[in-house]
TrEMBL record:
Origin superkingdom: Bacteria
Keywords: Lyase
The organism of origin for this protein: Cycloclasticus pugetii
SUPFAM superfamilies in UniProt: ClpP/crotonase (SSF52096)
Keyword Lyase: yes
CDD domains attached to this UniProt entry: crotonase-like
Family: Belongs to the enoyl-CoA hydratase/isomerase family.
PANTHER family reported in the protein's UniProt record: ENOYL-COA HYDRATASE, MITOCHONDRIAL, ENOYL-COA HYDRATASE-RELATED
Name of the protein in its database record: Enoyl-CoA hydratase/isomerase
InterPro entries (alphabetical): ClpP/crotonase-like_dom_sf (IPR029045), Enoyl-CoA_hydra/iso (IPR001753), Enoyl-CoA_hydra_C (IPR014748)
GO biological process, one term: fatty acid beta-oxidation
UniProt-recorded Gene Ontology molecular function terms: hydro-lyase activity
Protein's UniProt keywords contain Lipoprotein: no
């Protein structure tokens, strides 16, 4: 797969790696990148050889946000059209396989929002997360206000969104944004290891678990419990569940 703004790699069996690749603009998310991301994810969604996807950037930056050069001077209507054409956002939010985001350096604005849409977020010690849109007279528009508030709570979210306050990796870890803080030299290997593990697991169970956790972020407890029940029951009809439980009892797993 050849793209102008992405590099696609296969670092391990079952794992596809998407590297944001606009180094001169700190991987700012322009329209081309967001369409190419949508194309790559749609391809991986239906590719049975892919069990998990890593999204990463460069050592210096995951992504410095939406491309300001494309946004300057546009109207609300033009922004709406741009959002609707940016298929990457929708493809990521509906992607059913596990996604691991490996952040080195900066994840700002839309870059942070992209990371927040991934399932598991890993960061290097020096990584920096911020939603600096207020400095441009706007607010986050790809889920940042809602996802950040749900994860870190109201007061700190208000500081980030109204005042551009940044979180560095350790604080992001303490506040539940990031699941692991890793040495810069090790982050990619650790992301590949994690994605390989995810890709090797029973795929329907992994997808069901992902859907349930995502539901927990957007529903009442009652709705979430019903959703979990509806995801749990059908797994007993899968070959994986039958084989894996039998293997456990036979001590052959
Ligand atoms: N967009 C476009 N170009 C950028 C961006 C960006 N977000 N960030 C950096 N660049 C470019 C610079 O213009 C510069 O280009 P050039 O070399 O041609 O002058 C180059 O990258 C290097 O940047 P700097 O010279 O500024 O480098 P520094 O090391 O001094 O600073 C920073 C790096 C801190 C990343 C700085 O460039 C910066 O603050 N960038 C802007 C960060 C920002 O405000 N991000 C939020 C953008 S708004 C947004 O993300 C809204 C998302 C809404 C999504 C809605 C869709 C549904």
């Amino acid at each position: 797969m050849q793209y102008e703004t992405l590099l696609i790699e296969t670092p391990a069996k079952g794992v596809a790696l998407i590297r944001l690749n606009r180094p001169r603009q700190y991987n700012a998310l322009n329209s081309t990148l967001l369409v190419e991301l949508g194309d790559a994810l749609n391809h991986f969604e239906t590719d049975d050889a892919v069990g998990a996807v890593i999204i990463t950037g460069s050592d210096k930056a995951f992504a410095a946000g939406a491309d300001i050069a494309e946004m300057v001077g546009i109207s609300g209507q033009q922004m709406l059209e741009m959002v609707e054409a940016s298929t990457g956002w929708r493809a990521l939010s509906t992607f059913t396989k596990p996604t691991v985001c490996a952040v080195s350096g900066m994840a700002l604005g839309g870059g942070f929002e992209l990371a927040l849409q991934c399932d598991i977020l890993l960061a290097t010690k020096g990584a920096k997360f911020a939603l600096p849109e207020v400095n441009l007279g706007v607010i986050p528009g790809a889920g940042g206000t809602q996802r950040v508030a749900r994860i870190i709570g109201k007061s700190l979210a208000m500081e980030m969104i109204m005042n551009g306050r940044a979180l560095f990796a350790e604080e992001a870890h303490q506040r539940g944004i990031v699941s692991r803080v890793i040495e810069p030299t090790e982050i990619e290997a650790e992301a590949v290891q994690l994605a390989s593990e995810l890709a090797s697991r029973a795929p329907l169970a992994v997808r069901a678990g992902k859907a349930c956790v995502n539901k927990a972020m957007s529903s009442t407890l009652e709705e979430g419990l019903l959703f979990e029940r509806n995801a749990f029951i059908p797994l007993f009809d899968t070959e994986d569940a039958k084989q894996m439980m039998t293997a456990f009892l036979n001590k052959s797993n």
